[in-house]
Amino acid sequence: MRFLKDALLFLVSIAVCVVVAEGVVRYIDGYTIFYMPLSEPTGLASVKQDSVDKVPRAPGVERDWFATEPAPLPNKRAIPDEWERIYRYVEANPVGGWTFRPSDAFKVWNTSFSGDPCKHWFLRHAPGQLFLYDAPDGQDRPPYRFLPDVTIPSGLTTNQIGWRGPPIENPRPEKTVRIVFVGSSTVVEAHHLPYSWPEYVGHWMNMWSKAKGLGIRFDVLNAGRESIISDDIAAIVRNEVLPLRPDLVVYHEGGNQFRPASIVEKVPTDPVTRPSNAQEPAAVTWLKAGARYSALIGRIQAAFAMAGAGTGGGGEWPKPDYKVIWPEGLDEMSPQLDFARLPVSLNLIQWDLDQIRGDLKSIGADMALSSFFWMVKDGLVVDPVRHRYIIEQLNAANWPYRYRDLERLAKFQNRYFAKYAATHGIEFLDIVGNMPFDPDLFTDAVHTNYAGTRIRAWAAFNLLVPIVEKKLADKAWPRAWPAGASTALPTFTPRLTKLECKK
């Protein structure tokens, strides 16, 4: 009997230790403590001191502000059980390499884009239902909006018009400067992160205003959404941003139309070839299922991957040879805006930037362009476990292009953005030049973890301060709301539609 009691006490002690350790690891890694399966981790939340100090600070900005957080979202909602069930079902039954993702079930799809959803190449994989809406202009751009005024299972909380973040004050209060960020996934950010970088920018802008005694409030809004391109962004500005009459719109995008094939004579058709030591150990495969439920098991999985050097040692994979043909007559250091064959889709992007600039000018709003960060350089070597998705994106997703060519094009794209801004008299925010080149700030080659999100926001905030200060001194901002102009928000009505598509 004594033996059984001792054994039971031993097992209980072990169980308690495991539970406590699980909680500690979840906290350290940024998981929601009480959540099964595991939530998405926020990644490295703590920022190295030297990373903060590498970002130049604008005059009057206090370093201590960086450690402060935005106010909790007052519109965060409970997630319906049925939504959780649908999200987990799609997550557990991926289609064609995540053709239809769990969060897609909670987007409101533009009927001009979706057509008959059962005939659509990826909407037909929806889990028996879709949210739909009719675009006011009847066009198929943007392809979707987020559900308004909800919190969805991915963690995203939206306001009255389906944008990420807190409710929009309507009508806009007096002495309020309104800034809207537009772009794709690097603007809306990972849904599970507590705040996006535009939300941090707004938080620090208001701290700066209070410290200066300006009596001005900053309303910084996030109109970004993942997987969209420049013509989608132009439509968002036209249909959703203009009615809000912002003082400034910041365009941040440079990944979804980035096509290195535009400078390659003949793209090799060789299949992706991983290094011989880039095969995942069998133990890691078996641990994957358990890692969905336990942060501790996830650590064990990472240890096995480390032992097997599962991504080829952290350097660039061998690539087939190809010939780069730079467009004849194109100045790489100072791109001509009227050049007919700009690389990486920049002719198309320029067309949409022109549309956005013209639309904003029609309401007297200003525009800014930002540089776009690619975590790539020739000879880059990163940690094969912590930075595995950087390696995957640069080598598998961008196969067969060499790091040096990706770096070259990323720099060229940012020179083009700077030249476009200078030519048209709009502001240029060189975020890339004002934040450290540190793979620990990134989850893949373009998306930041939570530490990187805060650093990018800090860089953008410090770049915006002198711009805002000059506009306030010139009495250009905040602009008065035009007499008789509508204050109605660009709301819309989602409708839930049942689907019975034959797979």
Query: Which structural class do you get from the secondary structure elements?
Result: alpha/beta
CA-to-CA gap between the ends?
60 Å
Strand tally? 9
- Tally of contiguous helical segments: 13
Low-confidence stretches: 305-310
Give the SSE order as H and E letters.
Answer: HHHEHEEEHHEHEHHHEHHEHE
- Radius of gyration from CA coordinates: 24 Å
- As a percent range, the share of strand residues is 5-15%
Report the sheet with the most strands, covering strand number, pairing sense and barrel closure.
5 strands, parallel
Which sequence of strands runs across the widest sheet? 5-4-6-7-8
Taking all residues together, what is the mean pLDDT? 89
Percent range of helical residues: 25-40%
Overall morphology: globular
Could you explain the architecture of this structure?
The chain is an alpha/beta fold and 503 residues long. It contains 13 helices and nine strands. The chain has helices at residues 2-29, 49-53, 81-92, 111-114, 185-188, 197-212, 230-241, 282-291, 295-307, 346-361, 388-397, 403-424, 450-473, and strands spanning 107-110, 129-133, 144-146, 176-183, 217-222, 248-252, 366-370, 427-429, 495-498. The strands form two sheets. A five-stranded parallel beta sheet has the order 5-4-6-7-8, with helices on both faces. A four-stranded mixed beta sheet has the order 3-1-2-9. α4 links the parallel β1 (107-110) and β2 (129-133). α6 packs across α13. The longest helix is centred in the N-terminal third of the chain and has 28 residues, at 2-29. The radius of gyration is 24 Å and the shape is globular. The termini are far apart. Mean pLDDT is 89; it is low at 305-310.
